[in-house]
Amino acid sequence: MAIARHRAGRERRPTLEQVAERAGVGRGTVSRVINGSPRVSDRTRVAVEAAIADLGYVPHRAARALAGNRADAVALVVPEPETRLFAEPYFASIIRGVSTELAEADIQLLLTLSSTATERERFAQYAAGNRVDGVLLVSVHGEDPLPELLAENGIPAVMNGRRSADESFPHVDGDNVGGARAAVRHLLERGAAAVATITGSRDMYAAQCRLDGYYAELAASGVDEDEGLVAHGDFSEEGGYRAMYELLGRRPGLDAVFCASDLTAAGARRALREAGRSVPGDVALVGFDDSAIARHMDPPLTSVRQPTEEMGRAMTRALLAEIAGEPAAAPGLILPTELVRRASS
After folding, report:
1. CA-CA distances (angstroms) from residue 220 to 128, 216, 343?
2. Superfamily of structural domain 2-68
3. pLDDT in tens, 10-64
4. Listing from the earlier edge strand, what are the strands of the sheet with 230-231?
5. Which phi and psi angles does 242 have, rounded to 5°?
6. Which parts of the sequence belong to the HTH lacI-type domain (predicted)?
7. Whole-structure pTM over 0.85, yes or no?
């Protein structure tokens, strides 16, 4: 009998959802008010605080999770090996944006690596067990089935990037085509006669978009395509190193290279130095991401800046809105990029 009374009392505890309904706002908005986020209007804050007072709501993490059937946790899934996660500054910047946004909502971040089909299936089963409220996906490759596995289980999820031009899964991406075009335009305006490119992983849409941007700017400038000036990399430093040697073997007279990432440009810079080519005297070099690598290279690297940390924050806001049941404005958000000029070009 005592147990029954205890359960009944626990069930009568007001939930975050009831506060949201009383205030006429979403669950995510209530969470932001509770955690003192500045991204709430004064009028909304007053309404939420009044609802909390009326209902006697106590914002305790364990009570919230039990009453609202929530885990108060979001998983960030990176389908890459551990070596790449820690080698590429891109991931650190995304994680920083995600963790900052989740901290404001008082939600735990779980970081998961899933580089094999078995690991993806295992994670999908884990998430389906109500252990997380939603999933953020970073660096998704073209044939990755995880987004569909999550959708089939009704798990809210948002991707960083897209798998194709027709992507309908919720996503936040950068303007890869526009950024690549700006990089190539800069090299051509500088007077380069033979602009080469080192791509990213061919099964990733971001890499294809940057290659499309390269071709588009050549065409717009009246420059004929030369497949001998295109080498395929994988966004890594070693990939850039190998591809640069490949390009020098095919087109020794090249005088500029657009790389699909800063890490790729670092590998290309090493190969150029070994081959006795100066940067930018013999070969101008441009990267993509504008990471810390770009600023600390010798010479400092011209790079396409994409707002990586803001991308992490934006995809997190989109996920929290989805978890709260708020309608999505659009399936995807594309953030602008800009070229940052430095001594390498």
Report:
1. 49, 6, 26
2. lambda repressor-like DNA-binding domains (1.10.260.40)
3. 345 677 788 889 999 887 788 778 766 667 788 888 998 898 888 887 664 444 4
4. 230-231, 195-198, 256-259, 284-289, 302-305, 338-340
5. -65, -45
6. 14-68
7. no
